[in-house]
Write a structure and sequence with these properties.
This protein is mainly alpha-helical and 222 residues long. It is built from 11 helices and 3 strands; from the N terminus they run H-H-E-H-H-E-E-H-H-H-H-H-H-H. It has a 3-stranded antiparallel β-sheet.
Length: 222
């Protein structure tokens, strides 16, 4: 545990760990999250566990079952269609503004996340590549320097990261991110917005293919 971890409230640390476990597929959709079991696992009282679960409920990753337990949310096709519609509006704006407003240090952060994503995709590190892909999107929002947009994207951050995790062709996704990075670097706002819109649609197709493969029991194991 790092000194940073030690300074964080217990509920924040537990929420962070559970969030990663859900988004990385360690905790499967529909899986039970029982307060007393989690408290024993983390060596804490049930209070910080309860608070952590409330955070994840607000993020849309967990659902509470009255007087029983919580469960990892199972996203429906309608949930994901709603997310696609919101992404189709917000992400082209974010990439357009990032192209117009980015600073050198922000561009360097974006490039580092892209390099990690590409390295993970090439080496078969699915978790590492997908986490870096999510970071790429979050950094773009930072580069856009629009507080209201940032607040709106925070509201869907965990759902977006979950959607990005539902991809099998990691090199295809990282390749699209390379094109987006080059448009931002060139300050080509129009191209960045166009590529972002195409990326949302491509991500939708990749996710649907992944979900259908999982349902059919044919998804590859990384």
């Amino acid at each position: 545990m790092t000194s940073t971890d030690e300074r964080q409230p217990e509920s924040t640390r537990i929420a962070s760990w559970l969030r990663d476990a859900i988004l990385d597929g360690v905790r499967a959709p529909g899986g039970r999250l029982i307060e007393r079991d989690l408290a024993a696992e983390f060596g804490v009282s049930r209070v910080p566990v309860r608070d952590a679960l409330k955070v994840l409920v607000a993020e849309g990753l967990v659902e509470l079952r009255p007087h029983t337990w919580a469960v990892v949310r199972e996203f429906t096709d309608a949930d994901l269609a709603d997310l696609d519609e919101v992404r189709a509006v917000l992400e082209p704006l974010a990439f357009r503004l990032a192209a117009e407003r980015h600073r050198r240090d922000g561009l360097a952060r974006l490039q580092r996340s892209l390099e990690l994503e590409e390295t993970g995709a090439r080496s078969g590190d699915g978790i590492g590549s997908r986490r870096a892909a999510a970071d790429f999107h979050e950094i773009v929002t930072d580069l856009a320097e629009n507080r209201l947009l940032s607040d709106m994207m925070k509201g869907i951050r965990s759902r977006l990261r979950w959607a990005l995790s539902q991809h099998d062709d990691l090199q295809h996704i990282s390749g699209e991110h390379v094109e987006l990075f080059e448009a931002i670097k060139a300050r080509d706002a129009e191209r960045a917005a166009e590529l972002a819109a195409a990326h949302v649609e491509s991500s939708r197709r990749e996710r649907i293919a992944h979900v259908e493969a999982v349902r059919a029991g044919t998804a590859g194991v990384e």
